[in-house]
Amino acid sequence: MNRIEKIIEFLNQQPNDAFLRHALALEYLKIGEDIKARDLFLAILDQAPDYIGSYYHLAKCLEKLNDKAAAILWYEKGMAAAKLAKDNHAYNELQGAYEDLIY
Question: How far is CA 12 from CA 33, 69, 103, in A?
């Protein structure tokens, strides 16, 4: 059984687990299933807007999909969420990627 199948098996038992869904989205990115990854990241952040790590990966995925405007929006949302969570490390990573994209 591959990693994706294992994660899906776990998700069948815990369908709203943000960590498992995030892990599955990352696996989809690895195999080039960017749309599936994007949709999972969006679902995670819809249900758990405090799951800070997904903002960065969603925005990077959107960049890869050539959706610069959406990527900028999600970097901005991620920076706001990181600031609210007092997660300076995540804030700095999001800000760096954001600035790389807009400048």
Answer: 20, 34, 42
